[in-house]
Amino acid sequence: MNRKLVSVTGLILATTMFLGMNIISNETLTSARLDLTENRLYTLAPGTYNILSDISEPISIRLYFSSEQLAGLPQLANYGKRVKDLLNEYVANSNGKIKLYVIDPAPFSEAEDEAVGAGIRQLSLGSNGEVGYLGLVATNTTDDREVIEVLSPDQENALEYDLTKIIYKLNDPKKRIIGLITDLPILSETDQQTGQVIKPDLTAITLLKEFHEIKRLPVDISLIDDEIDTLILIHPKDLSVKTQYAIDQFLVKGGKALVFVDPLAEQDPTQPNPETPGVMPQLGSRLDTIFESVGIKLNSSHVIGDPSSAVRVNFNTARGQREVDYLPWIQLQGKSLNKEDFTTNQLNTVNVGTAGSLEIDPKANLTYTPLLTASTSSGLIDKDSIITADDPSSLIDDFNSDEKNHLIAVRVTGNYTSNFSAPPSSELKVEESKYDLDKSHLLTSEYPTNLILVSDTDILADRFWVRFSGFAGMRIPEAFANNADFLVNAVDNLGGNDDLISLRSRGQYTRPFEVVLDIQRKAEEQFRDKEQALQEKLKLAEENLSRIQGQQIEGELILSAEQQIEVEKFRSEQISTRKELRAVQHELQDNIDRLGSMLTFANTALVPLLIFLSLIVANGLKRFRLNNKT
Asked: pTM for the whole thing?
């Protein structure tokens, strides 16, 4: 009886201690966690600690979290707790500069009115009209305000970056002024009559505007003001001499620049001239004046192709739709991204399209740092063949690798030397009081300049890195590559801000099944070889039949026994080859399905099975020890 009482008492005490420890840990150890993810996605980054340590004025954060209303939606409820826990860690590491207020906006309460007034978006929770809130508002002492209308679970991989970005902007609200020269349609367009936006900015430009003021400069500018912190040139086509000189002198004065050129810009909307219908429009851009000054040359007649990292596209063929490696579209990963430079060391994937190849002719006092490179399996493709190609697979048939790491983006630092021995005064028309050409012309920079040159403009296009989904009535971008991060990182790095760069792109957006892709490519190589062989046989047969059809007597087609045998032989070969083609396709799909089944088993059954077996082994060992003791 006493033993039973002791057991019951011990069970009650153990249960009480267990519940007590859970309550205490839930309230006091919310920021403590063990991060076992490969890329440590849930560990606060050093850049966040640096930004938190530099906060100079108090910042208040109000998290509007309808915990009761969202309890029936586990994904949102758990994400709200995750946000609250992470914000508590921000508070703990801010030296008292950040104050967090968690507000539960119950229906028809003043807190709900406060949430709506702050701009927090309502979440519809059902057909009965019930709504909830999950968003935040952050303010500083000078009434600057940052709002996240909806905290979406789809954006969890960017949560720390978004929160740290808000802290950074409130602590240093002054934006750098970025000058932009471009002819591409990358900026928003507004209907002049209604004032409505008919085309938004490219998403990459939208992200850039979060931290910087973008000032568009005319393509015929003759002087770049000192207020411009960094100059961005995108697809500079046919710039006048005075504009090239203005850029040249901006760099001589120590200005920083990010230049995107392209031998074949797919975003270029230039249409063929109706007066010359057989002539293709000029879709390339270059900036030889500046490139020559820093010892860089762009191959403007060819683009880079790379079969080992080509993007797969769907293509309609006579046998239906199939996937093909499109050589001019390249997915840069791994060694193709410089892991030593802040601009690229946190990136996982950058997609480029019809990019040019840069060549370096080193100049004294300049340092060259490759940022983006193609693999050694890459080679060059004539850009005209891309324009005229009807079938993407034809580019593969004619492709030859030159085993070079073709350069796509490079950083150039050091003392810049002007490419102008004197001001081109005949081309410049500016007020002498504003710009004294004779006195202001500089030949060599007094301070080191910093340039990043990129041989692709399509890297900025939305289709190469982002897709969109809807959530709570909002259009939410979902990145599948780091193209925009490359742009923002480059501008931030040129301006000297590396802490935010260390936060961007933490974790990998896509993890391709390399084994599956390898199986597909090998099978498709066999498929293409046999397909070409079949086409050659068809061509030969057509020639033979044409020759035979020419041998007619009195309107009747006469075939010799040898010719009949030849025709029958071809038909037999044609049928057998088609069977082989189908067999290759079936084998390809079988290999993929077999590998998929293995991966599914490993992900869903193998680990639980191993745990179960280990428990059986552990239990057996325990019994074995007990038996030995007795």
From this structure: 0.63
